[in-house]
Specification:
By secondary structure, the chain is of the alpha/beta class. It has helices at residues 17-34, 50-57, 109-119; strands spanning 3-6, 9-15, 41-46, 65-75, 82-87, 97-105, 125-133, 146-150, 156-157, 173-177. 21% of the residues lie in helices and 36% in strands. Bound molecules: inosinic acid. Inosinic acid (IMP) binds next to strand 6 and helix 3.
Length: 179
């Protein structure tokens, strides 16, 4: 299936599973090397990063823990835009080495919000691992140490990422086709 239709849009395979897994393995090796002895706590950001998290964690071979967070969007009472609240952190983050596991960093605003929230819980250090980065869209200054793949500024689905809730189940990454 190299072309799929989701609602009004067509998508074509742009990154096959084999390539994804090669880059995920590389990132895992970097983390194994850099964070050995630190008992990192991986915080996977649902829903989009579930596939990346599973494949990454299968390749992490240092002692570590894993937990899952979600971002709930709600309309701020007095604010102009949507506020994203981080939900699901039950662990004590004090003095911990945290690795945020995210599906994609686009403008970076979501990641910035996560960093602000986690920062208030006094972790020792926070590292970022993202499957994908759209460097052309990045609006904020972020230190993203672990990037599996950089992609152009096109909309993608598959391997956990969705279009309107659909498409997360595909094992490859698909890019929208303009026709
Ligand atoms: P940011 O706050 O602009 O960095 O957006 C990050 C979030 O937007 C990601 O966690 C995704 O949920 C979503 N997103 C950004 N680009 C895409 C895409 O191309 N496909 C699917 N979701 C995307």
């Amino acid at each position: 299936m190299s072309v799929i239709q989701i609602k009004d849009k067509k998508f074509a395979v742009s990154i096959p599973e084999e390539t994804i897994l090669k880059e995920v393995s590389r990132v895992a090796a970097e983390i194994n090397r850099d964070l050995a002895g630190k008992n990192p706590l991986f915080l996977s950001v649902l829903n989009g990063s579930f596939m990346f998290t599973a494949d990454l964690m299968k390749r992490i071979n240092i002692p570590c823990e894993i937990s899952f967070v979600k971002l709930a969007s709600y309309q701020g009472i007095a604010s102009t835009g949507k506020v994203k609240e981080v939900i699901g952190i039950t662990e004590d983050l004090t003095d911990r080495t945290i690795v945020i596991v995210e599906d994609i960093v686009d403008t970076g605003l979501t990641m910035q919000r996560l960093l602000e929230t986690l920062g208030t819980r006094r972790p020792k250090e926070i590292h970022i691992a993202t499957l994908l980065l759209k460097p052309e869209k990045l609006k904020v200054d972020l230190d993203i140490e672990y990037v599996a793949m950089q992609i152009p500024n096109d909309f993608i689905v598959g391997y956990g990422l969705d279009y309107d809730g659909l498409g997360r189940n595909y094992k490859d990454i698909y890019t929208v086709v303009n026709d």
